Amino acid sequence: MRTVDIRVPATSANLGPGFDALGLALSLHDDVRATLTAERGVHVTVEGEGAGEVDSGEGHLVVQAMRMTFDRMGVPQPEGIHLHCRNRIPHARGLGSSSAAVCAGILAARALADSERAGKFSDDDVYALATEMEGHPDNVAPCLAGGLTISWSDHGGLPRMVKLALDQRIRPVAVVPSTRLSTEAARGLLPKDVPHKDASFNAGRAALLIAALTREPERELLLAATEDRLHQHYRAPAMRASADLVERLRAVGVPAVVSGAGPTVLAFSTSDTQDLIAPEVGNDWHIQLMDVDPVGANVQFPETR
């Protein structure tokens, strides 16, 4: 038997204007213990989020990611896989739960493969496969690298990223509803084309947001920098409560956006805005003040602890 422990962070993508490009790793984690056994079959146990709901066999996303990684490395599929998942990242809330599962599975498979095969499967390979499975890199990048990330694809279609450090005066606040929304449903509301003026507007705001998050986190600058015209208002009919909360928070001076595809709302809290958030949030929401995870996914072998 071989065992590895993987810790992966929640993530928030888009951050307002940075659609499919900006992402942030958050201090909320899923823990996965993966064990290869001589006993045939797949057995998955889940604690916390998704317990009793997600697939407990081959259909589990971590298992699927492991299988695909073994194939990419040219490693024979193991006889048996046992997973124990301790999930804290809410599912279908716009906090990167699927990216976390994909990254956990890929990293687990690489860690459990023989050293020669694993050594040939680079961090770039991990990132590329995770992006392929997710369809876009905006959550994958911060999950793997931590911090604030900018992701894009090069001319060959390979995903790339740059990691930045968030100004320490900013605290992300996730306002999580009890309702869920699938990424596919949210993406289905986006138009195929957008006006040139809206694209130009978002390009400027995304550039401004990098400056605001890394060096000038004044409230007025963050409010301007988190404005968006590309996706949030198109998705609003699918998450009216989230859209209304974003409007209320912004009206009292809190830089707030929809987290990823929603319906979680992410606020960038500073010393002069923290007390403004709770009065605008109803009982159907859970407010979670977080830190930024600076390192991203972590791999450990139990015997080395």
Automatic annotation (TrEMBL):
EC number of the protein: 2.7.1.39
UniProt domain GHMP kinase N-terminal: residue ranges: 61-147
GO biological process: threonine biosynthetic process
Top EC category: transferase
Pathway annotation: Amino-acid biosynthesis; L-threonine biosynthesis; L-threonine from L-aspartate: step 4/5
One Gene Ontology MF term: ATP binding
Compartments, record wording: Cytoplasm
Name the record gives this protein: Homoserine kinase
Organism: Nonomuraea thailandensis
Gene name as annotated: thrB
